[in-house]
Fold:
Amino acid sequence: MLFLHGILGNRANWRGIARRFVAARPDWGAVLVDLREHGDSLGLQAPHDLQAVTDDLAELERSLALTIGGAIGHSFGGKVVLEWLRSSANQITEAWVIDASPSPSISNGDSNATAEVLRALESLPRTWPSREAFVAALIDAGQPKGIAQWLAMNLRRTDDGARRFGPELSVIRELIEDYARTDCWDIVETPPPGCSLGLVIGAESTAFSPADRERAERIAKRNPQVAVHLVEGAGHWVHVDAPDALLALLNWRQTPAR
Structure:
């Protein structure tokens, strides 16, 4: 099972869930992925879009020489899962999209939290004397302490002992913009044969509009391959807000229509 993080995250975001997942389902293994321009996957060549990310996953599959039977993706990673299903030639048995609407969206709206974070980062230096200085500057720029500390996971130690923000923000912006303009509803409507698709929505999240929820539920009613799960008490960060509830879903073995 591939585990895919959201924008400005990294593979460590899913480590705890992945460990519990394989403990409950020992017939599966887990591959925690740093998507392009995240974690240790820095400096890859353009173009920087969802197609390039799915090409990266295909290259990863070839290098692993393992049978990849499914994928779980949060936010940006959720739409990557859908695009990966579109292009995958392998037999995928299950896929999970965690609080990522298949709809196109506005990438730079003033109310978009990701856009606000990106603007804050773009206004700050790339290199810092310490992690604490980076976190303090982000808080001063209006970001919550928890978000600032999470973003600090992207800092990399330089040769002189300072800290440098790893991802190139211009590449991150390109990825966000392509994510925003991509429509993946056709994959939700018709997943690959034999593949179950779970759409997990945080009940307190705004990632899915009411119209998106209704559309997803209509699809699930007519297509037994698709299931929609609303997680009460969870916002966009479902795996942080309600890890036990999410794991209960992931450990439920869906039986796709053949």
In short: Residues 2-104+182-250 form a domain with the Rossmann fold fold (CATH 3.40.50.1820). Residues 129 and 160 are 10 Å apart (CA to CA). The chain is about 40% helix and 15% strand. The chain has a mean pLDDT of 92.
